[in-house]
Structure formats: structure tokens, C-alpha cells
Amino acid sequence: MNPQVMEKLKQQLEQELQEIEKQLEESERPQATELSNYDNHPADNASDLTDQLTDMVIDEHRGDNAEEIKRALQAMEDGTYGKCAVCGEEIPIGRLEALPKALTCVEHAEQREDGLRPVEEDVLSSTPRSDDFIELEEFGSSDTPQDKS
């Protein structure tokens, strides 16, 4: 890889890391807007909780993003930057310019490092099986006997 391109990507990663770390420092811990829940409507409490959870998830995402950037910077130090961590092939420069923290080629981008997939994928599918509905009807439905004929 061209040294000028590598330096440009490194500066871009370092700048992005500084911005994320600054945002994490400035991020306030979620606090309730009311001192007492005694006279609050449940929807007000739910709104507070939603705001708190949203802020926490955004901070967690920023932290994950910072870790990815640190891994990319470490790969630059190790001399492995620009090569796919899975197959060892060169990562196209266009991908690195678009996503400097990328450590895999496009073909391996969807694979998670730990090999785990969301547990929901074991249960859910994009097309329901016909016996799924039969199993659900065992728990009851609003259909009348005439509807089932």
C-alpha cells in the first residue's frame, strides 16, 4: 500500500478516535427528570426510561466503534493492515477509504469474529412453515367452528 494513503488513513482513524473519546467523556449518565414517581403518569416514566436506555446504547455503540478503530490502528503498527484477517487477501483501497477501520474484505465482512449469530436466527425464519400456524392454533384463536371448516 502507498505510504501516503496509509498515513492519510491513519490520521483519519486517529481523528475519529479522538472525536469518539471526546463524545464519551462529555456524555452524561442518564438521570430521571423527576424527583418522585408518585404523581407521574406511567408514560412519563416510560419516556424517561427510553431516553436513558437510548443514551446508554449510543454510548455502548461509540465504545465498540472506538475498539474497532484501535484494532485497525494496531494492525497498522503490526503491518497487517490492508489484508483480510480471514482470508489474507488484499482489501481493496476503495473499501479502506470508505471504511478505514475495516479489517476484512467485503466477502468476509458479514462474518463475526466470534462466530456467533443472534439467537433469534435459530427460532425465526423469513418464511413461516405451515405447521407453525397449526401449533399456534393449539393455544387458541378467535376462529369460530364455522371458520375452521
Automatic annotation (TrEMBL):
Composition skew (Basic and acidic residues), residue ranges: 17-31, 110-120
Spell out the residue ranges making up region: Disordered: 17-52, 110-149
Q: What InterPro entries does the database record attribute to this sequence?
A: DnaK_N, Znf_DskA_TraR
Q: Where are the zinc fingers (dksA C4-type)?
A: 84-108
Q: Which of UniProt's keywords are assigned here?
A: Metal-binding, Zinc, Zinc-finger
What Pfam families does the annotation carry? zf-dskA_traR
**Limits of the Zinc finger DksA/TraR C4-type domain:** 79-107
SUPFAM superfamilies in the cross-refs: DnaK suppressor protein DksA, alpha-hairpin domain, Glucocorticoid receptor-like (DNA-binding domain)
Q: What domain of life does the UniProt record list for this protein's source?
A: Bacteria
Protein name according to UniProt: TraR/DksA C4-type zinc finger protein
Which species is listed as the source? Lysinibacillus xylanilyticus
